[in-house]
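Usage example:
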Amino acid sequence: MPLSQTEAWYLGECLKGETLMCKKLANYRDQIQDPGLRQIVDNLLSTCRRHVDLLASHVR
Amino acid sequence: MSQMARQFSDREIAEDILTGHKYLANYYYAPAILESQNPELRSVLQQVYSDTQAEARQVFDYLNSKGWYPVKPADSTDLTELRNVAERSRTTVAAITQDTGGQIPAMSMQQGQGTGYQGQTWQTGVSAGMNPQTQGAWQTPGGGWQVGAQWQAGNPTGWTGTAGWGGAGTGWQTGGFQGSAWPAARWTGTQAGEGQGGMGPSSVAQWSRWGGQPSWTGFGGAGYTGGTQWPAQNMPGWQAGGMGRSGAAVSGWHMGGMPGGTWQAGRWTGTEAGEGQGGMGPSSVAQWSRWGGQPSWAGFGGTGFGAGTFQGTGEVGAWQQSDLGQRGGQYWGGGQYGGGFATGGFGTGFGQGAGTWYGAQGGSYQVNLPDWARQDRPESGSNRG
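Running the assembly step on the lines above writes:
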């Protein structure tokens, strides 16, 4: 099923948002002092990357 | 520049991540899900949305554990107000769905399901707004508008106010008693939509329109199913007292008049516009559409009269008796029979006298509309709800 205009727009926005989040997480990771928080951010970064791949897979 | 180069603290980082996740969830994924038509994409978005929420919770927990995101308990004032809101909501919803198993009465009426009168207590089928004390003109003493009769097949003991009465269901504009005679019932509903039968979406619509004071009255309640004739053997005492014994109260039918205690032929109260159909059903739904949610059906029985709505039966009885007092045996219900609400009013559109439908539709009248029922007569309008 082809994407609607609205779907395409939201998909693009979500990709941008996730990408920005990934950048921020990657940047923050090097600044974090608390190992506990770093672990959380690592997990978030992994998930964020997965999300980008997932969303991007719908862009054909 | 040195300020720009300063690293963020862990707290700032965590707070920003939480903020970012909230933003993603609320402003990206939530609307994207709602707007997505593609099932696969929607599924993916929902998964990502869920992930994002879970991640936000992780960060929140971290902040909270550090004391950076304290959560304050609601104070007692807030909780009190919240409880009030909850109670109002519960009451409102319960009133709408009461005794219907969560279904809208309009769609689920069956014999005996009405809520008009059970035991010796009128159940409120709707809300406080349905209390006769707060009703509109239909309950005006002497106004001639009576609550619908309490029909109860299977209650041969008569109208003694015992359990099982068909309650005055929401929505039946009852037949009028003009003066002391039974001239004819008249449709109390008008183009404004009063008098629709039963409790259903249209009723809800009216609450809104009328600020919670719908004007329906009349039949309904337990015990009557549209299209079912009352078994003669089950006819209660009112029957012998002057109501005749035809018992031909079929859904959508006039009970027929009974001047002199004799039944006249019942007849279909429905009209070309659909007024007077009994009970709540698809036809009613059609009327909602036609009339913008303001049907004026009437007529006896019919699936769906029920959802009784009267409380404060004493008051009901009082005003009802104002007209019904002399009609011994012709009323059933309250004042005379212990229930506190003498009724005997026929459903809207019931031609008590001639069995003629007097319903008005959009300001126009049907043929055979008697003078008294003409809307252009000054007094005729005074009794409408």
